[in-house]
Amino acid sequence: MIGSIKKYFSDIYNGVKSLFTGMKVTGHYVTHPGEIITQQYPENRDTLKMFERFRGEVVLIHDENNEHKCTGCSACELACPNGTIEIISDKAIDEETGKPKKIIDTFVYHLQMCTFCNLCILACPTDAIKMAQTYEHSVFDRSELTKVLNKPGSKIMQGIK
Amino acid sequence: MEQIVFYILASMIVVFSVLTVTTRKILRGAVYLLTVLLATAGLFFLLNFNFLAAVQLTVYAGGIVVLIIFSIMLTSHVNEKLESTGNKKKFFSFIAVLAGALICISTILDYSFKEKSGIEIDTSMNKIGKDLLSYGDGGFVLPFEVISILLLAAMIGAIVLAKRETQN
Amino acid sequence: MGFSIYDFSDFINNIHAFLIETFSPAIGNIIGMAIVAVCFLGFIALLGLSLVYIERKVCALFQQRLGPMRVGKWGTAQTVADIIKLIFKEPLMTKDSDKFLFNLAPFIVMIAPVMAISLIPFASGLQAVDFDIGIFFIVAVSSIGVTGILLAGWSSNNKYSLIGAMRSGAQIVSYELSVILSLLTIVVLSGSLQLSVIVESQREGWWIFRGHIPAIIAFIIFIVASTAESNRGPFDMAEAESEITAGFHTEYSGIKFAYFFLAEYVNMFIIAAVGATIFFGGWMPLHIGNIEFFNNAMDLIPPVIWFFMKVSAIIFLLMWFKWTFPRLRIDQMLTLEWKYLLPLNIMNILLMSLVVLTDFHF
Amino acid sequence: MEEVAQNIETQEYFINMGPQHPSTHGVLRLMLTLDGEIIKKVQPHLGYIHRSIEKMCEKDSYQQVVHLTDRMDYLGCHINNEAVCLTVEKGLELEVPDRVKVIRTIISELTRLSSHQLWWGVMGMDLGAITTFLYGFRDREMITDIFEETCGARLTMNYNVPGGLMFDIHPNFQNRTKQFLEHFKKKLPEYDKLLTGNVIFTERTKGIGYLSKEDAISYGVTGPSARASGFSCDVRKKNPYSAYDRVDFKEILFTEGDCFARYQARIAEMWESMKIIEQLIDNIPEGEYKAKTKAVIKLPPGEYYQRVETPRGELGVYIISDNKKNPYRVKFRSPGFSNLSALDKMARGFKIADLVAIMSTLDLVIPDIDR
């Protein structure tokens, strides 16, 4: 009898005590606004930098002479699990050897289908493509997500086979 | 001023009382009843019977109507409508209502209301509290305690009933 | 016309006299009532706006966030924007719902806090009605609100709403008991139900200090029980969004939903105001014994400020509860009431009566 | 009186919990048969997020299969990737470098930690304490940053390739991981203060959703949920893969089998995961990050099976190969599906509020169930 009464009151005491421990934790944070972790996103665009390995979208690397390294071998197209990359190639004559050679006409990239798995980059034998660190991909029109990666008038770099 | 308020409240009581018994949706009936009870509480306030008005609010509006609504919620569905009553039933209820009204009206007419009784009735909370627990003249301690015991018995009974069910 | 921020009774009386002199007594009274009504409606609207904002900011601080920051400086206009959004939202209704009751329910929920707020003494003389049954009246009208919740849940024609309404019915009806009893503890001490008298009786010191142990127990019980009665914090079983989506107001949208929201916040204010009035001396400044210097300094702060400081402190406490604790289960909540709070409460009243009889309080 | 009680008909009613419901954590539909608030029966209905991942695997090459598993149990995606890679490596009889094994183990444990942190937050939120949700995410953020720096993505990392890793770890990886461990060791006791010791929380979870050891075995429940019932089933101990055979850690076992035991099991697992990472983080062996594999992987004809321990339980990958560059059939034995099957057994007789607690202690991820 006395034991159960004692238990009744100790239950109350322990319960209230456990509640206060919890309140102490949240109370700590409310009195330490310096620990706030929120980043205000659009305002911090300038300082927000993605990690170099961050996979934002596939880009074809162009140098200052508007030249890229893509030979149009379509290894990336094969490696892609989703059919994100379509390479439309053209025939051209190699200036050095005079033999017919494959060059890319358009490098189509469907961003809306991309899962950013990085397999195309691994598959590329000439390191012509890479993942860019962009992250704001939302657009109002779906067709804007289908991109042509080779810039107009770009040529293949010398010595890439 | 007071008269205007009185007529507003009185007409509310009449209209909503009629609606309570004529509506075919049962929960609406309960809500109309709530309005009637609230208007009655308003009448008490008008008469300066503040305590009685508050009791009316707590017990009827807050307690009994909630209980009624609760039991309706448990038993009926939202788009259920009561069947409209038959003509025979209507006739007999009309007779009963008429009889009741006649009795009430005749009693009221018979009673000789005094113009204004000189004694001001003290309805302050202090007086009521002291009267409730005094055993002298005008004290209510005996009925108060009797009602307490009655309520206690009812509570124990409810607990016993509820407990038996869980054992089954 | 005398006006002082320390005592409003002259100011109010002067306005009253002026109205009655200018117009006939009847019309003067009606105009007076209209002014009071407009003041209160404005105050409630302001209260809803500011409390929603405060809640969001305080909650954000508890959770190491910033809270609303976009609309206005520090997001201060966020709630205004929200209200505008709610006004322009489509009022949806479920099939086969009882349209009359569905539309009526938000207003019934609103009635209770609007009636209760008129009894709160904001400062000396700044009180709309001063019934001698004060606390009893507040308790009585707040019991009407539950009807609205029940109606909302039932007329939505949604099983989740029905469960929510059922839960809140059981909850409010049982916790009302504890609220009343914990308030009675202080009534025993002050000897009156009238709010202005209770405030006046704390001129020497607040009841929570003078009533020591039983008063503190009563305050804890009051805070717990009134949190439960307002469907807030760890007792928000009626809406419990992770269990029954949003409980009784699942089907409400737009301005009708805003009514439920507003009612919740006004209720919270009333709880805090009643708590502050009963336990912390309402608008009474803090006085410590006979330290003249300190007491005079405290007297300089206007009573309205004192009142709102106490109210905000209690509101902050309520928010602290809400943003720290997990929700109880419905049967555990009833156990808490009937097994712990109620017996403690009754014992506490006995203890308080002993204290009063033996003059043991300060 | 008893006659009356018998004659009163009480009706059981159905209620649809989901597909859109705040606490099913996705598009799971539970058909509940209720008597008042008491649950009489739970019928899970699946398929709302079925994307036929297993079928899609059949047209993909083995490298491509890996990234699909990111989308199954998205909270333990590294471990899913690892499971596929281990199966393929088993088929190729390929021995991966030590460095790969250790890195895989560290990242697996980080994944487990991040998954459990999210689970803790969500569990608190399901029980009504919304603040825990934010705290869980706060600590998880540090891990996702580590992942982003090393693997290139925060959630669907796809860091494994058959034979090793996609690239070597980032130079900052070890430092950041150590920083995180230091931070989290301070924060994990806070978790205990907020929920574990809290009287409301213990009342809500103790004795709720009991699952006996026998039931756990017969329903195929695995992971922390089963270990809380006393069923020793940790694949990391029973069938060590990667570097688990060289680290010292305990298999967490509880015998109570209720929600609180499942909760405690996961909290204790977080401590164990930190222990494992601590042992390995300074001892990453030098070497290649990828074994040499052919560009087109063809598994010899046969059937291959590998199981791993994900945060939710045992994930089995079963591949049938017919010597082509893509698998003939792939089957995933996902932990969520089996764990869900015990829900009915656990929830009967409890209330709706308890069902929410039971579901969060099972830690369901719906895409893992539907695939």
Would you give an account of this structure?
The complex is a heterotetramer of chains A (161), B (168), C (362) and D (371). Chain B has 168 residues and is mostly helical. Chain B contains 6 helices and no strands. Chain C has helices spanning 9-22, 25-62, 78-87, 99-117, 134-142, 145-155, 159-190, 195-200, 207-210, 212-229, 241-244, 254-279, 292-300, 303-322, 330-357. Chain C is globular. The model of chain C has no long low-confidence stretch (mean pLDDT 83). With 371 residues, chain D is of the alpha+beta class. Chain D has helices spanning 2-7, 53-57, 62-69, 77-92, 98-126, 130-151, 173-196, 199-205, 213-219, 224-227, 235-238, 259-281, 335-341, 343-347, 352-362, 366-370; strands at 13-17, 29-35, 38-45, 160-161, 164-165, 302-310, 313-321, 329-333. A 3-stranded antiparallel sheet of chain D has the order 1-2-3. A 3-stranded antiparallel sheet of chain D has the order 6-7-8. In chain D, strands 4-5 form a two-stranded antiparallel ribbon. The longest helix of chain D has 29 residues, at 98-126. Chain D starts with a helix and ends with a helix. The chains are: A alpha+beta (161), B mainly alpha (168), C mainly alpha (362), D alpha+beta (371). At the A-D interface, helix 1 and helix 3 of A face helix 3, helix 6 and helix 7 of D.
Q: Unreliable runs of chain A, pLDDT <50, ≥5 residues?
A: none
Beta fraction of the residues of chain A?
15-25%
Output mean pLDDT of chain C: 83
Q: Element order, helices and strands of chain C? A: HHHHHHHHHHHHHHH
Shape of chain A: elongated
Let me know the number of strands of chain A: 7
**Into which percentage range does the β-strand content of chain C fall?**
under 5%
What's this model, at a glance?
With 362 residues, chain C is mainly alpha-helical. Chain C has 15 helices and no strands. In chain C, helix 7 runs antiparallel to helix 10 (212-229).
